[in-house]
Each structure stands twice: as structure tokens, then as C-alpha cells.
Amino acid sequence: MMYGAGAGGVINIITRRANEPLEIEAAIEAGRHDTRQGSVRVAGKGERLHYAVDLAQHDSAGFNSRESDTDGERDGYYNQSASARLNFVASDALNLEAQLRHQDAETEFDSCYSGFLTSNDCLDLFTQQSVRLAAQYRQGQTDQEFAASRQEIDRDSLSEGVSSFAVNGRIDELNYLGHTTLAAGEFSWGAEFEQQGYRGSASALALDSIGVFGEWRGEFAGALFYTVGVRRDQLENEDHSTWRATLGYPMSLPDGGEFKLRGSVGTGFRAPSPFEVAYNLAEGVAPLGPERSRGIEVGAEYRRAQGLRAELVLFQQRVTDTIVYDYSLGTSGWGAYGQDDGESESSGAELSLAGALGAQLEWNFSGTWLDATDSSGEQRLLVPQRVFNLGLAHDLLDGRLTLGGNWQRVEDRISPPSNWGAASERLDDYSKLDLNARYRWSEALLLSLRGENVLNTDYREVAGYNTTGAALYAGFEVRL
Fold first, then answer.
1. Which of 69, 114, 158, 309 could crosslink 354 through cysteines, CB 3.0-4.6 Å?
2. What broad class describes the main subcellular location of this protein (predicted)?
3. CATH number at residue 92
4. Whole domain around residue 45: which residue ranges?
5. At a CB cut-off of 8 Å and minimum separation 6, what does 373 contact?
């Protein structure tokens, strides 16, 4: 289990594998703004072969995205994706896997440039293709994986139908990961080679990096659990070492519950992307170095056998040499990328509670109190300092019908200016309510109804941009 600020942003997605030779799932939903989305999944399991094919499409006429667009025309969105996964069990020790994915998306937006004039006839085109091949080998208590992958992205921004900014990005990776269980603990190790490439209309660049890492997981007397990990990365122009350590102390309570104290501390870095490096080369600006970060976190968890769960986390993260876009740099007058000389900081607390009131009603609450400042001590833009969520789910009709809702409160935010040269703008606090209902008609059919912002709250997430009002969506899911 990863804990701490260094784990922020890590999302582990596990695709459910089929249990039958042929399984078919389909879902359709439609609602406000002429929104329609649908998906189909075909999967199966044989004696040695597992497969899955997924198709999905989402399109919406959207709503007017910018307050400055007085014409009221809608800005739509279209997304279509397809993926396939094939897994072959060659033997008890060897497993082979292949994955493919393709995605196309179109996003309409306002306020782009046609020459030196602004236009609201703007379109962003996005295409992503990825492939991954992997082999997993198990021998005794040791697991190993070898993988090779490529991801390629093409992007083009059009203003009044004419391309204004077209780029291509590519990431090639070779990965090795090992894990073994020993009498004293567990050890994981690995290495990766990565090449990131960027190609634009006027420049192209490729950056290579090599990383090696290892982590030890152990315990003291079956009561205190710890991990210690280190990583070394070799970049084009310099090397970096990062580390991470965690500590956990779980205790069983007389009421059948569990109480756990935990903590973590670590360092990290982010290297500049090929686009950032190439852009600065074209602008005649000094090369960029990596961002560096360090973080610490302490937390307490309580779980009661009857279902009550509580967690409190205190954290602090500091980042130095933050890469920022600076309009005063470069030779074109449009700016370039620079690095902040100071240190930005994010510190605060997160509280989460969950439980049940009887056998049919479940509830959850989460709250975040954050103090996020930049290197000058000013509040960071677009980072809310307080966010609260309260959710309820009530089962009826022997569990066939579930009614749910989520209330969200967002407070204390500052947005970049909506107009060039203006000052940053403090946004109003807001609350919004979402509701949903799901009815299990049969084992094969599930009906759904959901409402977003049902109280039609007028709020803004970014100055100068509109948000959708109340919206209703209905759909169904079929599983065969």
C-alpha cells in the first residue's frame, strides 16, 4: 500500500477479466446538451487464452464555454475509443500479454487566434495510439515482468478551419520489474528505459532516460511494518536520486475494530518535457532543469467491525525550481518556460468518514483543508483551500433499487484573469448537489437515472468560463 504525498496522482486501474467463454456488456446513456454515450465490451476466457475488446463513444453538443462569447453558440465534444487485450497462459510459469488502444477526440472551444484577431470558431483534434507487449515469468517465490510499450499522440488546434498549432508526441518504454518473497520480508526491484519525442512544425527533439529502483518491505515482531525504497534516474544532462520510506503500526481493538498509525517521507522530481525543452530552444531561452519535491505525511485510521471507518491525514509537500510559463521570456513576444527561484508549499489535513445507519443506508464524508502557496507566499491559482463532500446511498426493494446523492462544497479559490493583463480574480464559494438512482430490473438489465447540479447552482471553476446548469441523464446497462 502506498501512502504519502509522493503517491499523489497514482491511479491503479484493474480491468475485470471474464469468467466465461463469452461475456457481452453494453451501456447507453443520454441527457442534456444532446449528450449521448455508449460502450460495448466483449470478453472471454478459455483454457489458456483470455481476451477482451472494448468500444466506447461519447458525444455532446455542449454549452457555450466562454462568457466573452455573446453569440451563445455551443461548444461540443466528441470522443471515440477502442481497445483490445489478449492474454495467453503459455505454462504455469510463463504468461504473455498484448494490449492495444486507439482514441480520437474533438473539442470545440472559444477565444483562439486567427492571425492577430480572436475567433470563437476553434477546434482541438486529438489522436492517441498505444501498444504494450509483456511477459510475466514466475519461478518459486520470484515474479518477473518484461514489457515494451509505445504511446503516440497527435494534436492539432484549428482556428476557423485552419491549423494553427500541430504537434506530435511519442513515448517508448522498456521495463523490467522483479519481486521476491524472503523469510525476512519482500523485495521489489526494476529498471526502465524511456525515450520521449516531440515534433512540431518548426522543431523536433528526443530525450532519453534510464532509471533503476528497489524497495524493501519488512516488519518488526509482526507489529511494526515498514518500506524503504530508492531510485536513480539518468537524464540527458544530469542524474537524480530519490527515496521514500513508510511506517505503519496497526493495533487490534477489543471491540473487533482496528486502529492504525502510519507515516511516510520521501523526495521526487519532474524532468522538463521534450516540448518544454524544444520550445525554449526555439525561443533562445536557457535550458530547463527538473522540478524537485519533498513531502511528509502522518495519518491515523480507525475501522470498526460494524462498518464505521475514519481516517485523518496531515501532510506537507514542498516543490523547488517549479517550471512555469513566463511571458517576459523569449524572442517572439509570446513567452517561454522558466523556473521559479523559490519554493512552493502545500500543507493541510484530510478527513474521511464512512459508515452505515442500519442495513440499508450508507454514508460517507470527506473534507480537505489546504494551505497552498507559491514561492512568493501568495495563494496558488485554481487550488481550492477547502473542499467538502457528503454522500448517501439507500437500498430499497431488497437491494434492487439504490437511491444516492452527493453534496459538494468548494471554498476559497483564486483564478487566473479572464482578460489579458488583468489581475487574478477570487471566485465565489459554491455548493452543488448531484442525485442518482439505479434499479436492477433483472440479473441482465440495470436502469439508471442521474442528475448533475440538480439545484441549478450558478458557479464558476475558472474566471471567464461557463459551467453547465442542472442536467438530467438516463441510461441502461445490459450484461449477457
1. 309
2. membrane
3. 2.40.170.20
4. 5-479
5. 344, 345, 346, 379, 380
